[in-house]
Structure formats: structure tokens, C-alpha cells
Amino acid sequence: MSAYIFASVEITDPAAYEEYRRRVPAIIAAYGGRYLARGGAVERLEGNAPVNRLVIVEFPDMVRLKAFYNSAEYQPLLAIRQRAARSNLLAIEGV
Fold it and tell me: Cα–Cα distance between 95 and 85 in angstroms, integer?
């Protein structure tokens, strides 16, 4: 069953975040992930959640998603993202 990372990202250091944005796609792909949405225009339809950069990444399953997130390859980039942005990430199992 597919699994998804849903991320809402408020970038606080654009230069540092650019390094993360440039390097992370190869690691996502190595774990079978693919972008469904990445930083396009966002329009609020309901509610009052902040309209930040939104990213949706699909993985083959939750095992691969967690393997990506916890991988040695991703950890240095995770540290960059955490310094360069305020983020909320959710892991969602598909149907």
C-alpha cells in the first residue's frame, strides 16, 4: 500500500534550503519515492492553516518511507532542512 509524506514548510533561510532542495530528490528516488507536489501555487479552500510551501511525496509503502526518513543518506539533509525551515511532516498510509 502506498504511503505519503505530506510536508508544510516555512522557509527561514532560503540559501540553506536551496542546498536541501537540490540534493534531496536523488535520495527520495533511491528509496522508491516520487514527488506528487513540490512547492507549486497553494490556494486555501477552507480553514485557516498557514499557506506555506507544500510537498507531497509518494513511496511504495510505509516501510520504504520510514527507511528514507531514517536513512544515513538523509540525516545530513534533514539537519539542513531543520536549520533552514520550520516544517510539519506527516506520514500517511494510502488506500
Answer: 30
